[in-house]
Design a protein that fits this description.
The complex is a heterodimer.
Chain A lengths: L3 H8 L3 H31 L8 E6 L7 E2 L2 H6 L4 E9 L12 E5 L4 H4 L6 E2 L1 H9 L3 E5 H7 L6 E3 L10 E9 L8 E5 H7 L6 E2 L1 E6 L5 H11 L7 E5 H10 L4 H29 L2 H10 L3 H41 L10 H28 L2 H6 L2
Parallel strand pairs in A: 4-9, 6-8
Antiparallel strand pairs in A: 1-11, 1-12, 2-10, 3-4, 3-11, 5-8, 6-9, 7-8
Chain B lengths: L4 E14 L2 E14 L3 E5 L6 H8 L7 E6 L2 E2 L5 H11 E4 L11 H6 L9 H14 L15 H13 L5 E5 L7 H18 L2 E5 L3 H4 L4 E6 L2 E7 L3
Helix pairs in contact in B: 4-5, 5-6
Classes of the chains: A alpha+beta, B alpha/beta.
């Protein structure tokens, strides 16, 4: 601790250089923390423990191919099945394409049963009204709040996949544990069938709820085996796997984010190493004087390393603070456009990763120039004026 | 020389290597400096005076011969032991003062004490004492850039003596000073030698500065040319 003032004073020897380096580090760490948190949020979405006993059944060829509604009768009879629901991604636009949110045409009765972990707080009477009204819809509370919808309001969706623009009356809202689960609108599948006769008797997928999570693999295998020889074979998968595949349609996000993180960290290393190399090189004589006074190489190395690590930590902590402060804005901003990010937060693991990465960068970037400085003969250092 | 030698060089040799070329700087030099002596090393450029000073101060190693300073045979000490030895026994005064620019006078003087097991209060007392000796207590919160060249060198002298070393080595301590400041610095060194009994070894080209020493050692091409006692 008695060297702390020495480290701090040396760190701010060139105030502008130090502040610029810290600012660069902070922005970079902010970027890394945010990107990694996006990945963690998406990962959490595709690893939802609540979805453990839910299975998505779709056409084997593609999500855009429809499967016969009658398949549901057989699936419902399986001993492991608690409930099934036909559900179709509608992909409608509300007023403006930027107002993106998930909207589905679904069989209304089983919705709450299938998604009971998500639809946790709702009014019974509102949901009964929804069941009765074929032109009704139910929406997550966050989504309703975002657009200022209230029960009784009429919401018109503009179809992008199907040639119909349903006028839906908001019949009820629900609250969930996660904001992302409140970014959804459901309306009657029958309405879609009536509006688009060509799909009558067919649907994009079935959501199946198994009685036990342990039954899920067996159920998946049995469903797909049963329909394997049918004209429209199925592909069943856990809801998490389905979500993951859906996310993958946006590209290999994990690889992209990891590549960007790697590039940012490499750039950080170069910039910090350059700063520290300059800071140490211009103190060649000073290092020699310290050693002449009796400081051992290890002590001088420790002081220089502490300086480098402190510099990186300042940038790291600054970046983490930025990311933490910015998380709310990202949740509100991007989360409203990309529902998967509605629950965006900076996980503790990401904070720790950034903190350790900052320290590691400081260590790596300072080690070589500091080591070279203390290995230089004292008399050479004293001559280096 | 008498038997109370604090510095004893026997057949000291030092060569530098430039690629495969050996450049001998000191060639079998014998020298004894008594405790409390004030010696000026003189000679033309390349005569080996700074090299000899560096060897005696333990910041360079001889390539031959034996070197004993303050009762320690420096040839036998490893780098860390030598660093510890320097911290206790040697104070350095450089031509360009070499103060740490981001530390004020007090903190610069305090630096060598950080290596010793002293409390903050003890360090403070020692620093104030050293600054009082060089008459700079009133400038202790000034940074080097806020001091004149003479004041900077006096802070450097305070730093050199604060840990109470037995030997002070000074390499051209007046080289960057005007005549008045140079005279003040030399008078200060003389006082440290006479009042505190510090053994001083000074490298200088300046005959006026050398005149403050009690003995002038003249080197020529790496060997002892002559020793002159200064009559005052």
């Amino acid at each position: 601790m008695k060297y702390l003032h020495l480290v701090l004073r040396s760190l701010f020897r060139s105030r502008r250089r130090t502040l610029l380096t810290v600012a660069f580090l902070a922005v970079s760490v902010f970027l890394v923390a945010t990107l990694q948190s996006i990945l963690a949020t998406l990962d959490g979405f595709a690893n939802n423990p609540n979805a453990a006993n839910r299975v998505a059944v779709r056409h084997k060829v593609s999500l855009t191919n429809l499967i016969p509604m009658r398949y549901q009768d057989w699936i419902r009879q399986q001993p492991e099945v608690e409930a099934t629901m036909a559900i179709q991604w509608f992909g409608g636009i509300y007023q403006d394409p930027r107002n993106f949110f998930a909207n589905f045409a679904a069989e209304p009765e089983p919705i709450v049963r299938i998604f009971r972990e998500e639809i946790v707080e709702y009014t019974e009477s509102e949901f009964k009204d929804f069941l009765r009204d074929r032109n009704g819809c139910i929406v997550g509370k966050s989504l309703a709040d975002k657009f200022g919808w209230k029960v009784g309001d009429v919401v018109t969706l503009q179809g992008t996949i199907f040639p119909m623009n349903p006028r839906l009356t908001v019949r009820g809202t629900w609250k969930s544990k996660r904001q992302a689960d409140e970014q959804v609108l459901y309306f009657h599948f029958k309405l879609l069938e009536e509006g688009v006769p060509r799909i009558a008797g067919r649907v994009g997928s079935f959501w199946v709820r198994a009685k036990n999570a342990d039954d899920v693999p067996r159920l998946i295998e049995r469903i797909d085996r049963h329909f394997s020889d049918a004209l429209e074979p199925t592909q069943s998968e856990t809801e998490n796997a389905f979500q993951l595949n859906f996310l993958k349609m946006m590209g290999n996000i994990a690889a992209i984010i990891h590549s960007i993180t790697g590039a940012v960290l490499a750039a950080l290393l170069v910039v910090t190493a350059n700063t520290m190399a300059m800071a140490i090189r211009e103190r060649t004589t000073e290092v020699a004087v310290f050693r002449a006074m009796g400081f051992t190489s290890l002590q001088v190395l420790g002081i220089l390393m502490a300086e480098g690590i402190l510099l990186s930590l300042m940038g790291g902590v600054g970046g983490i603070a930025l990311a933490w402060l910015g998380a709310g804005a990202i949740q509100q901003g991007i989360g409203s456009v990309i529902p998967w990010l509605a629950d965006f937060a900076i996980p503790t693991e990401t904070l720790l990763f950034c903190l350790h990465a900052s320290m590691g960068l400081g260590l790596l970037s300072t080690l070589v120039p500091a080591w070279r400085a203390v290995r230089r003969p004292i008399i050479e250092g004293l001559r280096a004026l | 020389m008498n038997g109370e030698a604090i510095i004893r060089c026997e057949g000291i040799a030092k060569s530098y290597f430039r690629d495969s070329l050996e450049i001998p700087v000191l060639q079998g030099l014998d020298l004894e400096i008594p405790r409390g002596g004030y010696f000026a090393l003189m000679g033309p450029s390349g005569s080996g005076k700074t090299t000899l000073l560096n060897l005696i101060a333990g910041i360079d190693r001889p390539t031959g011969g034996s070197l004993e300073v303050c009762g320690y045979r420096l040839n036998d000490l490893d780098d860390d032991e030598l660093a510890g030895w320097r911290a206790i026994h040697v104070g350095f005064i450089f031509q360009n003062y070499n103060l740490v620019p981001v530390l004020n006078a007090f903190e610069n003087v305090e630096l060598p004490l950080l290596l010793q097991p002293l409390s903050r209060a003890q360090r403070r007392a020692r620093v104030l004492e050293a600054l009082a000796l060089v008459n700079l207590e009133d400038r202790m919160w000034n940074f080097p850039r806020q001091l004149s060249g003479g004041q900077e060198q006096r802070v450097a002298i305070a730093r050199a003596i604060v840990s109470d070393p037995r030997i002070l080595v000074a390499d051209e301590p007046t080289g960057a000073l005007d005549a008045k400041n140079a005279e003040e610095v030399m008078a200060l060194l003389e006082r440290l030698n006479q009042d505190l009994g510090k053994t001083i070894l000074l490298v200088t080209h300046d005959p006026k500065a050398a005149h403050h020493a009690r003995v002038q050692i003249h080197l020529e091409k790496g060997v002892l040319d002559r020793t002159v006692e200064v009559n005052r």
